[in-house]
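Hi L.,

You mentioned the student needs an example of a multi-chain input paired with its predicted structure. This one should do, with 1321 residues in total across all chains.
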Amino acid sequence: MKRKWDPMKTKFATGLVALAAAGALALTGCSSSDRGGPSSEESGGASAAAGFEDGAKIGVALPQKTSENWVLAENLFNDGLTEAGYEPIVQFANGGVSEQQNQIQAMIEQGVKVLVVGAIDGSQLGSQLKAAKDAGIPVVAYDRLLENTDAVDVYEAFDNFHVGELQGQALLEGLADRKGEGPYNIELIAGSPDDANSTPFFEGAMSVLQPKIDDGTLVVKSGQTSQQQAATQGWEAENAQNRMDTILSGSYKDAELDGVLSPNDTLARAALTSAKQAGKDVPVITGQDSEVESVKSIMAGVQYSTIYKDTRKLVQATIDAVDSYKAGEEPEVNDTESYDNGVKVVPANLLEPVIVTEENAAEVYKGDPNLEDLTK
Amino acid sequence: MSENHHAVLEMRSITKEFPGVRALDDVTLEVRAGEIHAICGENGAGKSTLMKVLSGVYPHGSYSGDIHYQGEIVEFRDIRSSEQAGIVIIHQELALIPELSITENIFLGNEVRGRVGIDWETARQRATELLARVGLRASPDTLVKNIGVGQQQLVEIARALAKDVRLLILDEPTAALNEDDSEHLLDLLRGLRSRGLTCIMISHKLNEIEEIADSITIIRDGRTVETLDVRAGGIDEDRIIRGMVGRSLASRFPDHTPQIGETFFEVEGWTVEHPEVPGRLVCKQSAFHVRRGEIVGFAGIMGAGRTELARSIFGRSYGRYLGGTLRMDGKEIVVPDVLAAIRHRIAYVSEDRKTLGLNLLDTIQQTVVSANLPKVSNGPVIDHDRAYLAAEEYRKSLGIKAPSVRDGVATLSGGNQQKALLAKWMFTEPELLILDEPTRGIDVGAKYEIYGLVQRLANQGKGVVVISSELPELLGLCDRIYTVFEGRVTGVVDQADATQEELMRLMTGAPTPAR
Amino acid sequence: MSSLKQLFGGGIRQYGMVLALLALLAYFQVATGGLVLTPSNAQNIIIGNSYILILAIGMVLVIIAGHIDLSVGSVAAVTGIIVAIALRDWGIPWWAGILLGLAVGVVIGAWQGFWVAYVGIPGFITTLAGMMLFRGLNQRIGHSSTVPVPEELQQLGAGYLPEWAPDTGLNNSTLLLGVLALAAVVWSELRRRARAARLEVEQPPLWVALVRVAVVGAVIAYVTYLFGSGRYGTSFPIAGLVLVALVILYNFIASRTIGGRHVYAVGGNRAAAALSGINIRHVNFFVMMNMSILAAVAGMVFVGRATASGPSDGNMWELDAIAAVFIGGAAVSGGVGTVVGSVIGGLVMAVLNNGLQLMGVGSDTTQIIKGLVLLVAVAFDVHSKVTGRPSIIGLVFPWLGKGRKGSGGTPGADDAQPEVPVADGATSRG
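Structure written out for the whole complex:
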């Protein structure tokens, strides 16, 4: 093996030394980086005291783009925030939980001043929300509660428990109205088990219906009265329909189904389809979301009721909360007891849902471009 | 014999380059109408490349020079355009789809159009006619995977005929065929020639070329060496070899004085069942023995059962073992899998080196050590430097032509690949080495080298078993030759007494003629 | 200039991907106004993608052996829920939970390995069945609800290495790691040269080794600085440490052990491998079991980061892992691929994702871009294999092109008949 000293070697040895020097320089040259010491570890917390200026970036992380509601929300946030003088960053996470996690991280990196989160799964964002808190960014839970973390500052939503109560009441009224005297046969449908909102819907409704079940006015022939039994995975219509089919063929061979508690319109229509295909009379059925097909159904006298949650109002309330943070204040809340997310009780700003039936539909939907015409 | 003596094809000054290599350098080829023109040359000489230029595989523009066909200059863009001109090439690796029927294969790419879609009835009918023309007795519905290699070759020719071929190019047509099928094929070519077909044949089989070719062009190192006119007479194998190799091979086999010792490997009553057809025996009570320092040959027609015998002895890697004993140095051994075979110092170099022998993704170094990795490892960790040294040793001692053992084994020529494979098995330090068709697809010069290696192994006191379909090879190389027919060992002949006729007789199970 | 090729010894393709990665980093750094190469973002990239990269390590071995595993997401998810519930309901310590998770991986791996290796069902089908089976199991065990996990497990997925005095201006744990890494590189290079010299094996000239060490050292120094200079309390993430340890381990196994060689042999030519005495069943069983174990690890890391196990975890993870492996240079037909390449392939996707998110690009557009990137990356690979030319790198640096397996070959008719391209896919060999 040749071991002559050649100029190439010298050149590269020099290069090596230079590189090493550069490396050392890089390492030391930044000893005064923005690390701070242990004392600055306790930054975080709702920086209500600080406030921020105009033109700040506001991050809005929404779940999957799967329904009219959310598309509407996206547009409203973009327009509303821009109008209020901010720079909105609104994103959907069609790729699921991990994408939402990454998006929230990116928003923090981009320097948002407030973070609004419509979670896909409210319990899986803990790390990202903590990072937001450490960076002094207030976190607003939009429509879905963020659980198992202390890094959430306010919960903006419609009062979902009250939604349940309204649905329970509507069911009772509808039964009395259309199905004569009791006792009535009813069945229960609940939402997806991994959506935190399913529970307040169900519990709210049961708070009205349970006493009637206990005193015999209402009979659940299938015996499925727990939320778990009534749950519909993924809020999927086919899951509700399949379950209804099974219940009808199992418990309703010689009986009539008078009413169904349904937490939303999609599942209500699924249950109606199931009943129709089984040759049953149309039961009294509740819903939520004021979807176009269901509004039509209500006006035609089939579905009994739905709930109107004006997304415009909720988005506006959220933007109001952002304004509060900008001014260095706490946002307005009206409930500081009900929402225990497992770590803390989250202050909530609850909006009023409106129950809609054939009678009041025209009045409720006045001014809504999509729904107004259907009520004519 | 055709009357026409004009040149139907003239390839002039063809030069083709690849990155770093000039495969063809100013090559000229002249083929007369209605003749069978053979092209000979060592591996890598450029024969296949030349044919690929002609058939449009390398389109016009990727080479320099002209091709004059039927009096005009032609510029083929692709295979289709050359086929439309009546030039059809049948590659060495048959381009048939095993899962499709003979009819479908014949008309592949050349389907019979009906009014709507493919007209299978007409296709089938035409297929039957074509099969009759090539002398293949099989139903056109038979799947190609169910017929033998010889018959598949005939299907390829039928396919060419279906394309109205005027100039047929055959690349090593009889390489994979046994004697019977080869004869049949050559007869067919003669028949086609008498009906006006012009043929170009690339072949290594000098005896066949002697028999059938009208002219021979010899190519060496990408250049035309000479063109011999066979009809003019005076051409024999030696003359051809001299042209190909540039020197006369006084003998095709190196001199060798056998030093034969005691019997050390014995097989008795070996019986093996076909893996997929129950009840069919591929080895019937086979028995043979090998002595130290001896080269033992196995002759037989294709399908006689030699490879099956070898592979089943080698760790039962073929078929279902039904019975029989193996003895090494007098002691009975049980060899239930390949690893056990290797441990008992048995090595098997498979017949199809590309599909059964080599991992073409590997380097030469990796190939050489692959059957005995523990020898260059510390526990489970491979020592790449030791592997390199081992591979280097074999590269030198076997004469593997490659710039470095770190090159891919796929870049080697056929002969060198075979050497690499041989090195791999020699690295397992076997006592018994079984070589299955060790010189298939290898040129004359490389064959000579491999014979030398085999003899060297024998001289080291090992036993070598050689399975081959070339009788001259067995006769020249082996000390004793067994014959196998239909799974049975039908005879054994010493080198001194062996003749092609005698072997043929035993191989085909023909009864002893009355003398 | 073969020394320059020896400088990096790897396939040109692999280095093509490294250059692509650097190009992406540079582009996004500029396009986002410097948001990419910050300590917190770098940490995010590692934390947010380590689980996919861990999957890719296992997946590359599976693909090299000629199989594929579609069940990894479901296996990760079911491991996550089992560990989460065990920690919550049985009160076992966190390390027991991790052992439990590994055990789950072993059991599932043995199950799938059995079907593939001993019964002979193709990996595609077995793991497709596994994908459905384990997804269902996940939902059943967890009642489709989200189960939070304790702090220690969260540290695994999202935690950092500890801080300690003295004040160097960097996180000292990270600094220590960087120094160790540098030392290891130098030492291994020295050792390699010493052994080669002892055995008198040909080796590249000294300056090549010096440059190699210098470049790698510079990279290590930069990475140490990048991760160590973040906010107090952050460092090179623990998840990243797990990832790096696995990469080192598996790279070693794949390139330097007999077992690793066997995997390549089985993938490269199964029949030849069988005839060389390799136990095909053992190899198949090993790669499938190994994959499930790594899937279990990935599941636990993800659940740690997400602070809870959810019913939709693991969805589509297999596709991300497979994409990483193919971008990293593996061949669809098996027998080719490297652990490091797959991790780089995964990082390319991760950086792409991250950069687009920082630019505010929507989820749907990002998906479209990722699909196109995968297609283009693999197209280049196929193209370069068929034509024997190493893609862009070969065009830009033509002197890097020679000597690559299967290309050009050597002059001399006696020698290699070059493996030359043919339009219809057939190649001519000797």
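You could point out the following to them. Chain C touches chain B through 53 residues (CB under 8 Å). The CA atoms of residues 191 and 197 of chain C lie 10 Å apart.

Best wishes,
N.
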